[in-house]
Amino acid sequence: MSTRTSWSSFKGNWSNGTGKGGHPRDSPQWVASPNRKTIVTTRAPYLRKNSHLFWPCKGQNAFLPRGTALEPMQSGNSNNARNCLKIPRMTRTNPALTDPVLSSFFRLWLPSLAGIMAMTTANIVDGIFIGNYVGATALAAVTLIIPFLGILFGVTFMLTMGGTVRAGKYIGEADTAAAGAIFSKTLLAVVVLVLLVTASGLLLETYLLRALGGNDDVLPLMQTYFRIIMGFAWAHLLTVVMYFFVRVDGYPALAAIALITGSAVNLVLDYLFIVHFQWGIAGAAWATGISQALPFLVLCGYFFFPQRRLVFNLRQTKWRELFTSAFNGLSEFINEISASIIALLLNWMFMIRLGVEGVAAITVVNYMMVIGLMMIFSIGDAEGIFISQNYGAGKLHRIRRFLLICISLALLISSISIWLLLCHTHVLVSAFLNAEDQDVIELTIGLLRLFWPVFAVSGLSLVITSYLTALHLPVQSSIIALARSLVLPVILLLTLFHAFPELPFILAIPMAEVITFILALFFLARFFPNQTLFRKLDALKPSRL
What we know:
This protein folds into three domains: 1-9 and 28-91, no CATH class; 100-323, no CATH class; 329-545, no CATH class. The protein is 68% helix and 2% strand. It has helices spanning 95-98, 101-134, 136-172, 176-203, 205-211, 219-230, 233-248, 252-276, 281-299, 320-328, 330-353, 356-393, 396-423, 425-430, 438-451, 453-470, 474-499, 508-526, 533-540; strands at residues 2-5, 62-65, 71-72, 85-86. The protein has a two-stranded antiparallel ribbon with strand order 1-2. Strands 3-4 form a two-stranded antiparallel ribbon. The longest helix is centred in the last third of the chain and has 38 residues, at 356-393.
């Protein structure tokens, strides 16, 4: 409800709304000209950069919400500043900063869980359809292309995660202009990346596919799949960018709906194109491509939301900020690239020791790991949004409570996963393999009994890594990611494989996870959200670009 107010009613003792006077540095404001129709800007010395003020000037009337707290302009870059008043901005509240911590967690986590699990399920369904209805050679062709797509996804993920963490901090500071700028830069950078990689990939197609391991038997299938899927690369990568930025602006439901839509469409199209129309590997590629384009179109609905904080602008400056923010997403890039390297190394070792059955067994183990770890990854996704914004707003107590909730849920999910693996191993493995493959089933059960410690500690390491990333600590989070996903697994795998052939070399993975967890605990103890946290972060923080 508003009331018409004139200048004469503004006279008296003014304050910043707290009753104590002073400068409202933390209160974002509107800026309006005297006719209240044109929005202008000011940079008063005591206000944040790009803060906004609403200026009803002397002799003019203004419409204000009842109970609005006012104080006179103290300085500004307008000739009318001395005759003006500042009025708090009327805008939507940020639930990440104001809602109860527990409800904020579930509001962010549940949509993330739904979307990520839908995406994970889609990948598993793709493998099932291709392997059962197109053939093992076609499945191998797709698998050989995945490392190239993984590198492309890793670069995009690095830019996106670094950008969303910085945007979240800006939103917490009420600097929506800066948040929109980093959103625009990230989107533009990924568009350029897609154009360059698509053009060069199609131009050097044969050389690239040969380098990925394609031989004369599998190369035609690789070419068919590659040409179609690269035509949709833009949709896949831009969906990644939009998904995370839409979530950081407070629209997790839209992001989840987009991914669930893509997953459902992928399932239907896989059946139609592969089983019904029998298009083979081309049908698999078209189903995947179309199901990647639809989520992007759904996410574009964000641009029609009138209260969105992130505004896309084609003209940008200070591009160095993109690279500094990308550095903060380096740990995510390391995780994506390292996963491909470790997968290749494990496949090579299993082929030498156990043959095709060993590769099949570790594939089932990977499916089970992905399902469990993606649930915890969704926790880290919500964690990054909440903590980055509360870090920008300086709300230490909310950061601490949210972190403890994330750790508790990660422990619960890990405990349930271990219980299922140890008590219902045969049932779970049989869901992925036919009863005829009894040797593979027994081998998979044996691997899971060696592998279960991974579920005990890897989830907590992921939560701690996301926490450090949200606090703009890229070096620390990258050290954990590099140790967990590349350095320790490679060293321990090669050591056990060559120096201790009598031991199962797969033990290297649980050993690497336990060592990484100890390292993550060290960083968590150093940067735990207590009274000295902000002082430590300020000492490490580079100058803002």
